[in-house]
Structure formats: structure tokens, C-alpha cells
Design a protein that fits this description.
423 residues, alpha+beta, SH3 type barrels, Fumarylacetoacetate hydrolase, domain 2, 8-stranded mixed β-sheet, 14% helix
Length: 423
């Protein structure tokens, strides 16, 4: 089936700025509260598109689609219809929004101002896995905490390292994050202490959403992996570095990661991201056969992190790119399923921190401040080694096309003080 919705020459009766995340070539999917109910929606420019209303008007038709699939608190039921259906609906949605469309005169019935619309968590995430797939990030961390000459652990170039995270604490952009509390060991000669995290960090990541279930024992090949990936979102894997340092041996992150992760309100389809495909980095040594992938499996997506303090002071923290990933999404999914682990619609896999080769492209405060030895300067002259209460962390990402961009919307969270125990 053709993906006519991607046509760069298409224009809509809804005017969009060249720097808008949501031109007619994007049409991501999310959920909004409209007329007192949750509905599956899309976006164009600064408008939210009510797919229930458009379906009832006859613009979206498929023998497998009913409005029940669209009157949902998540896009899970919609994704589960399969890519043939969702691709067809996205094409029809693009047709309805074209300049000169018969639906232009009825726009008030299905378009809403995004600023006035309550956007919700787009996906019901059943299970979540975080990978560790940026070689630059892994090298930086290994250099800081281990041996600079042997920064990568022996398995790192042979398999996509990952761990199972906490799905219940993945929240939508705009949800404030309370500073986590836990055990730390600031002095190696003294016992551990308990209290609020002092080294709160962000991690700039991307995450993909599984749109097709598998059965227990079923394995997914790198060749077929993208058939199971519905789309992508920006992902902030909030991290408590001091808690992590004390707890991670021998089984890896636990409380240091499980307190919160933030995503955007929108899932951008793999179809919409097709123009930004690029080659993956060369992998040495050659990986095992089940991890070998062909074709352009990485994506040229420009990513950035920005900090705004409570007093209005700001700092641009980094500019990096998703194309740097050493392990691509197809390899991640193939490895995750090779033991027969089954997947459900809505499962989410994050990339791990995305870093480039220099400080300006490092995707976490841990790297940017190099464990706190190189503070970041804010616009008012103040400094940050890690995140302070009142700071708002803002992630952005987009693929740049010819005269348009495909973006993901905001991935923002404000740091609030730790919650006191209710004793």
C-alpha cells in the first residue's frame, strides 16, 4: 500500500509553520479528552484532530474500524488493527485535510486548538524495557566509573544491553516529577544514608511502541522487526545517579530509574519517519547472525535538551541525533525476543541515553558535567551540576525535510521537592 500521506508536495487547508512539528506529512496519533470522553486524535499545526468526529462524518472508513476503536483511553486498540489498517486510515486522514478538501468547510466539527485541549498518555504501556545502545554514552560512563582503556564491558559490542523498567511510572509530558528518595553512600568509609536524591539527572532517549503482539516462544527477526514497531516517541529516563551508584551492583538500576519516565503526547509512525532513514554505524566485531540487519535502519532525528529554572534562567544542554545509535531498533527487538519473550500491543522499548562524540552532544547531565566536575552555566550566571528543584527539563526532536519537519511535540517535566513520608 502506498504511503501518500508522506508526499512532501501535499498542502493542507490548515496552515502550518515550516518549523511546526505537525505538518500534513506527520499526522501522529495520541489521545485527548473531548466532550467528556477519551478519544484517539491526531495533530496538524497547532490543532488537534478528533478522529471520532471525522469517522462519523464518513472521512475515515475501513471495514475493520469502528468508532469503538477510537473512543478509547489509549491508541492500543487502534494499533492492534494492524499496519495495513492504520496506514490506510492515516492516508484517508491526509486526504481529508488536503487543500481544497470537501471537509474544509466542516473543520470546526473535528479540529480543536491544541492549547485548549487536554492531551493524555497516548499508550497503555504493559511492559517497558530500557536499552543501553549508544556507544558514545556507554564509553563515557565506562570511562568515568571504570577503566578508560576498557570502558565498554566485554559483552557490549556483541548484544544490545538492556534492563526491564517500570511501566507504571511512565507519564505524559507536563506531569511534574517529585525528587526521589532512597539510599545513597556518599562516603565509601561510612554506612549508607537515607534521604532525597542529590544527583538528579535526565536521559535524552527515543522509545518505540510495539503495535503487534507475539506468542510466548515466538522470535522476531531483524528483517521482520519493523512490522511490529508502530511508531516512536521522545523519552526522558529520569535518573537518580547517587541512588544508582549504590544500588546497581550486581543487578543494575532499580529505584534510581523506576520513579518516573516522561514521553510526549504523540506517537509518530514509522511511515512518517521514512524520509529520515539512514545507515547504521559499522559494527565491529561482526555480530551473530540473528542480530545482523540490512538496509537503512537508523533515523536522522535531531534531538535537544533545554533547562529552564524556576526563576526563568535557561540553558541549552545538548544537541544530539538518533542516528548515532550503535544498536538499531530492529536489533533491539530481535535480541529481546530471541529467548521467546512475548510482546503485547503497547509495550515500549527505550533506546538508552543518546550521546554524540563531544560534550555539546552528550545526552545526560552525568556526561555534560562529567560527574559534576564541569558545571553548566545558566543564563543568569548560576550553575548546575545536576537538576535542582524547580527546574523544568524540556526535550525536543524532529526530522528535517525539504521545507517541513516531522516532530514529536514536547517532552517536558518539572522537578518538585521530594514528598515527605506520611507517618
Amino acid at each position: 500500500m502506498s504511503i501518500r500521506a508522506n508526499d512532501p508536495k501535499r498542502t493542507s487547508f490548515i496552515t502550518t509553520d515550516a518549523e511546526s512539528d505537525f505538518p500534513i506529512q506527520n499526522l501522529p496519533f495520541g489521545v485527548a479528552e473531548i466532550e467528556g470522553e477519551h478519544r484517539v486524535v491526531s495533530a496538524i499545526g497547532d490543532r488537534v484532530i478528533d478522529l471520532v468526529a471525522l469517522s462519523e462524518m464518513g472521512a475515515l472508513k475501513h471495514d475493520q474500524l469502528t468508532t469503538d476503536h477510537l473512543r478509547q483511553p489509549s491508541i492500543n486498540a487502534f494499533m492492534a488493527l494492524g499496519k495495513a489498517v492504520t496506514r490506510d486510515i492515516r492516508n484517508q486522514l491526509s486526504d481529508a485535510l488536503l487543500e481544497g478538501s470537501d471537509y474544509a468547510d466542516q473543520a470546526d466539527h473535528f479540529l480543536h486548538n491544541m492549547a485548549d485541549t487536554k492531551l493524555k498518555m497516548p499508550v497503555d504501556v504493559g511492559d517497558y524495557t530500557d536499552f543501553y545502545s549508544s556507544i558514545e554514552h556507554a564509553t563515557n560512563v565506562g570511562t568515568m566509573f571504570r577503566d578508560p582503556d576498557n570502558a565498554l564491558l566485554p559483552n557490549w559490542r556483541h548484544l544490545p544491553v538492556g534492563y526491564h523498567g517500570r511501566a507504571s511510572s511512565i507519564v505524559v509530558s507536563g506531569t511534574p516529577i517529585h525528587r526521589p528518595v532512597g539510599q545513597t553512600k556518599p562516603d565509601p568509609e561510612k554506612p549508607p544514608v537515607f534521604g532525597p536524591c542529590k544527583l538528579l539527572d535526565f536521559e535524552l532517549e527515543m522509545a518505540f511502541v510495539v503495535g503487534r503482539k507475539t506468542e510466548l516462544g515466538q522470535r522476531i527477526s531483524t528483517k521482520k522487526a519493523e512490522d511490529y514497531i508502530f511508531g516512536l516517541t521522545l523519552f526522558n529516563d529520569w535518573s537518580a545517579r547517587d541512588i544508582q551508584k549504590w544500588e546497581y551492583v550486581p543487578l543494575g538500576p532499580f529505584l534510581a530509574k523506576s520513579f518516573a519516565s516522561t514521553i510526549t503526547p504523540w506517537i509518530v509512525t514509522l511511515d512518517a519517519l521514512k524520509p529520515f532513514r539512514t545507515d547504521s554505524p559499522r559494527q565491529e566485531p561482526r555480530v551473530l547472525p540473528y542480530l545482523r540487519s540490512e538496509g537503512r535502519k537508523n533515523f536522522d532525528l535531531q534531538l535537544s535538551a533545554h533547562l529552564e529554572a524556576e526563576n526563568g534562567a535557561t540553558a541549552d544542554l545538548c544537541h544530539t541525533n538518533f542516528k548515532y545509535m550503535y544498536w538499531n531498533m530492529s536489533q533491539q527487538l530481535a535480541h529481546h525476543s530471541v529467548n521467546g519473550c512475548n510482546f503485547n500491543v503497547g509495550d515500549m522499548c527505550a533506546s538508552g541515553t543518546i550521546s554524540g562524540k563531544d560534550r555539546s552532544a552528550f545526552g545526560s547531565m552525568l556526561e555534560i558535567s562529567w560527574k559534576g566536575t564541569k558545571p553548566v552555566n545558566l543564563s543568569d550566571g548560576s550553575e548546575r551540576k545536576f537538576l535542582a528543584d524547580g527546574d523544568t527539563l524540556q526535550l525536543r526532536g524532529f526530522g528535517q525535510g525539504d521545507g517541513y519537519r516531522i516532530g514529536f511535540g514536547p517532552c517536558d517535566g518539572k522537578v518538585l521537592p521530594a514528598i515527605e513520608f506520611d507517618s
